[in-house]
Write a structure and sequence with these properties.
147 residues, single chain, mainly alpha
């Protein structure tokens, strides 16, 4: 079965890779939107915010991660992605700079949780003698689970 973005359901690395790709894209889009007109920033940021909000559904649709700590981080990704993506779209519509910055911070928190999950999965794969994840692990990666 294939998810809406062509990711094979049931393969743990697929959704993790999809979410980690959003981290890099968000950073690129934020950099590109800095100092731009509101309309230009909206055109650049809104698609990234909408992608993050859709990523919140990955938790229910795709895989379970290998331990309770990592599962809690995976759940935090969904919470932050939904909250940040929704708030981002609302802030862009309202042209509310302060709300937009808050929403982007929430999405960055989702990204940090993604890094934490990826690092743990990579560590488990390598410990089992398998190839690690596509993204290299990041030492000291942490996830803020508060929502």
């Amino acid at each position: 079965m294939v998810g809406s973005e062509g990711i094979t359901v049931g393969r743990g690395e697929g959704p993790c890779r999809a979410v980690t790709s959003r981290v890099a894209r968000l950073n690129t889009v934020i950099d590109a939107a800095a100092g731009a007109s509101w309309d230009s920033a909206d055109r650049q940021l809104r698609p990234a915010c909408e992608q993050w909000r859709r990523a919140a559904g990955y938790e229910a649709i795709w895989f379970r991660v290998p331990d309770q700590e990592t599962q809690a981080d995976w759940h935090a990704i969904a919470l932050h992605a939904d909250q940040g993506g929704r708030r981002c779209a609302e802030a862009l519509t309202a042209r509310d700079n302060a709300a937009l910055l808050t929403a982007l911070r929430v999405l960055i928190t989702a990204g940090n949780c993604t890094t934490s999950v990826n690092t743990r999965i990579d560590t488990l794969l390598r410990a089992d003698g398998r190839k690690g994840t596509v993204r290299p692990p990041v030492q000291g990666a942490t996830c803020d689970r508060s929502g």
